[in-house]
Design brief:
Rossmann fold, six-stranded parallel beta sheet, binds guanosine-5'-diphosphate, 309 residues, alpha/beta
C-alpha cells in the first residue's frame, strides 16, 4: 500500500475495523474510504456493486461482520449465517469485479473443529465437526475463506484470509447478553463493585481455555500482511500463542476491577469449545509478535470502559 492508496475498511466502527483505521492513520495512510451501516448496508448487493464501481478502492480490509459471544451465536443463529454470508459474498465478489488490488478477509478461530489438535494449525480446517453453539457463524466464515481461495485460484485475485483468535479492545460490545466473555466480565465485575454486590454470576464451569489478542496488535498484523504477503496459498492464524482458563480470566479481571465479592458459576449456561489455541508459527515467521500483555490490555480496556460507558 502507498500512503495515498485508497483503502476501504469495511466495518470501521467495530472492534476490529476501528483498530485498523487507527493504526492506518498512525502509519500515515490518509486516503481511507469509510461507510457507516446507515450509508451502506453491505448485505445489499446492488448498493455494494454501486459503491465499488463509484469509489474503486485499491485495497479492502473486510472487517464487517455480525459477531457476538457464545450467547449471541447460540441465539441469533439465522442472523449470524445470513448477515455474514451476504456481507462477505457481496464485498468479495464486487472487490473482484471492480479490480481491487488486494483484499484481506477476517475470519475467526471458531472455524476450526471443536476437538482440533492444539495448538490449531491452518491445515486443521475441515478435518472434523464444529462446535454447535457457533456453527452457523463458523460455516459462514468458512464459506468466506473458501470464496477467497476460489477467486484466487480461478480469477487470479490476490486476496488473503486471516483467522484471529478471541479479540478484545476499545469499542468492544459490553452487552451482557451478546458480548464476548472478556468485555462482559469487565462490566459485570465493575458494576458489582459499584453496587456493592456479594456475587458476580458467570456462565459455564470456568474450565474452557481461551486465547485473547488485543485489537491494536491484530491491526498491526493485518496491515503488515496487506503490505508484505502476496499470493498466499493458505489463510493465516493470528493469536498470541498462549491461553488461560475462563476461571483464571475471571480472577484476573476481578483483581483489576478491585471487586471483593465472590464468583458464582451458572453451569446451566454453555461452555462452548473446550480449547481453541492457535498455532502462530506462520505469522511469527513473517516477523510479527503481539506486544500487549493480557493484564496490560485489560487495564487499558477497563480504563476506556470507565471513561466511555
Ligand atoms: P466463544 O469463545 O466463542 O465461546 O465466546 P465467548 O467470548 O462468549 O466466551 C465464552 C466462554 O466464556 C464460555 O466458556 C462461557 O461459558 C464463558 N463465560 C463465562 N461467563 C461469561 C459471560 O458472562 N458471558 C460470556 N459471553 N461468556 C461467559
Amino acid at each position: 500500500m502507498q500512503k495515498n492508496s485508497s483503502i476501504f475498511v469495511a466495518g470501521h466502527k467495530g472492534l476490529v475495523g476501528s483498530s485498523i483505521v487507527n493504526e492506518l492513520k498512525r502509519q500515515g495512510f490518509e486516503n481511507l474510504v469509510l461507510r457507516s451501516f446507515e450509508e451502506l448496508d453491505l448485505r445489499n448487493q446492488h448498493a455494494v456493486a454501486s459503491f465499488f464501481m463509484d469509489n474503486r478502492p485499491e485495497y479492502v480490509f473486510l472487517a464487517a461482520a455480525r459477531v457476538g459471544g457464545i450467547g449471541a451465536n447460540n441465539k441469533f443463529r439465522a442472523q449470524m449465517i445470513y448477515d455474514n454470508l451476504m456481507i462477505q459474498t457481496n464485498v468479495i465478489h464486487h472487490a473482484y469485479l471492480s479490480g481491487v488490488k488486494k483484499l484481506l478477509f477476517l475470519g475467526s478461530s471458531c472455524i476450526y473443529p471443536k476437538f482440533a489438535p492444539q495448538p490449531m494449525k491452518e491445515e486443521h480446517l475441515l478435518t472434523s465437526e464444529l462446535e454447535k453453539t457457533n456453527e452457523p457463524y463458523a460455516v459462514a466464515k468458512i464459506a468466506g475463506l473458501k470464496m477467497v481461495e476460489s477467486y484466487n485460484l480461478e480469477y487470479g485475485t490476490d486476496f488473503l484470509s486471516v483467522m484471529p483468535t478471541n479479540l478484545y479492545g476499545e469499542n468492544d460490545n459490553f452487552d451482557l447478553e451478546t458480548g464476548h466473555v472478556l468485555p462482559v466480565m469487565i462490566r459485570k465485575f465493575h458494576e458489582a463493585k459499584v453496587h456493592g454486590c456479594e456475587y458476580v454470576d458467570l456462565w459455564g464451569t470456568g474450565s474452557p481455555r481461551r486465547e485473547f489478542l488485543y485489537s491494536g496488535d491484530l491491526a498491526k498484523a493485518v496491515i503488515k500482511l496487506m503490505n508484505e504477503v502476496s499470493n498466499s496459498k493458505t489463510h493465516i492464524n493470528i493469536g498470541t500463542g498462549d491461553d488461560i482458563t475462563i476461571k483464571e480470566l475471571a480472577e484476573l479481571i476481578k483483581g483489576i476491577t478491585c471487586f471483593e465479592g465472590a464468583i458464582r458459576w451458572n453451569t446451566q449456561m454453555p461452555d462452548g469449545t473446550p480449547r481453541k489455541l492457535l498455532d502462530i508459527t506462520k505469522i511469527k515467521a513473517l516477523g510479527w509478535v503481539p506486544e500487549m500483555s493480557l493484564k496490560e490490555g485489560i487495564v487499558k480496556v477497563y480504563e476506556w470502559y470507565r471513561n466511555n460507558k
